[in-house]
Amino acid sequence: MRKISIKIGLLFFCLIFTMEVCLFFLLHQKIAHSRIDEQLSSLVTRGNNHRDVLETYYNEETIHHIALMEVKSDTEVVITNKQGKVIISSAEINQFQSLLNVEKKDVPRSGKVIEDNWKSEPYIATVTPFKGGVDKGYVYMFQDTSQLKELINQLNRHFLIAGIATAFVTAIIILILSRIIARPLIKMKEATKELSQGNFSIQLENKSNDELGELAESIQLLSNELNHLKTERNEFLASISHELRTPLTYIKGYAEVAKREHLSLDERLDYLIVITEEATKLTTLVTELMELAQLDNNTFTIQKEMFYVSDSLKKISQKILPAFKQEAKKLLIICPENIQIYADPIRFEQIILNLLENARKYSSKGTITTTEISKKDTEIKISIHDKGKGIPDNDIPFIFERFYRVDKSRSRELGGTGLGLSIVKELIDAHNWQIEVSSEINKGTTFTIIARGES
């Protein structure tokens, strides 16, 4: 994973280094041209100063004094008359001859640069006209370009040293920053590797609110979800093993007993009844497991259509009412005749039957289970209220989990598989409905389905 920090570092270094090179080049060119312009301007100014002196004190002594001054400086001066004849020169005239013959018609009084090619020529030069005595003339100023070249070379060396130092410091800073940026990515890569190996109990620190923080949060949520699914899967497999083992143990045990020859017909019939009951429970469990498998894999179908709720509830009542009467319990259905719902009628019946069956199991004798339907605009509320023992508050969030039972001690007595409410929740979600639960201990429980009445 170090590769990512190297890639990030190289990318940032190339971008920043390219930008620095461009800025350094522009700055170098600006400074170099500025220094050359200063030298040329200084040379013009020096020529103008000599012009002013010549125009004020034009005599042989003044001319010799000007030449003597330039001998002691890093510049040279040549004074000519209007025809170009040299009056005086502070150095050997041959090296300046080509520049003395340049066209001088357009030379302004403020002076003019006649040579600025410092890279290839030995001198830069300026010319300034003057009026002195009875004639006119020109003051030529020359400066050796070797000093300028040395100045530029020195500037180049300084820029090179500064560039190397800047590149070195930039590389160190980018290396540190790239490691800081890559560190959370490295941790997330290690976390995903742990996930791929089945370790879902990882913890990622998230101290940022940027995209990396969101990615870390997503990986953490995925880890938590996978860990929860792993726990659920283990509990699910343990519950299945228990639920299958119990009826199979009964069936096997009573079958062995029923094979005994000395048993009477009535005793043998009792054992066969138990075997049949346990086989029925086992069949119900397998059927519900298959239904849940279909729901999980989305292989079941929801065929929605408009139908009257009251008609469906009448059919449901006919199926389940005998079970209520057998246990001396009552079932009350309150439903206006004109309410229609857009749903799968078979799945709708399955939802209501499971909820009513759950209410019947946990209600006491002589109590009333009420099913009430109401409609507001396009929203339909289906409430199933029993007066049973109720559900503790800390159990309510888990009642739709598979094989979860509030009263573990009564599981065999009530004969439930712990899958009914799980199937109800899956079917509710498949219809894009909502289900709410409210309960009070020893007062009863209410399941409320919020559905839509139109497509």
Automatic annotation (TrEMBL):
Main EC class the enzyme belongs to: transferase
Domain HAMP: 179-231
Positions of transmembrane segments: 6-27, 159-182
CDD domains reported in the protein's UniProt record: HAMP, HATPase, HisKA
Assigned keywords, A-Z: ATP-binding, Cell membrane, Coiled coil, Kinase, Membrane, Nucleotide-binding, Phosphoprotein, Transferase, Transmembrane, Transmembrane helix, Two-component regulatory system
Protein name: histidine kinase
Sections of the chain in a coiled coil: 212-239
Membrane topology classification: Multi-pass membrane protein
Superkingdom of source: Bacteria
Pfam families linked to this entry: HAMP, HATPase_c, HisKA
Domain Histidine kinase: 239-455
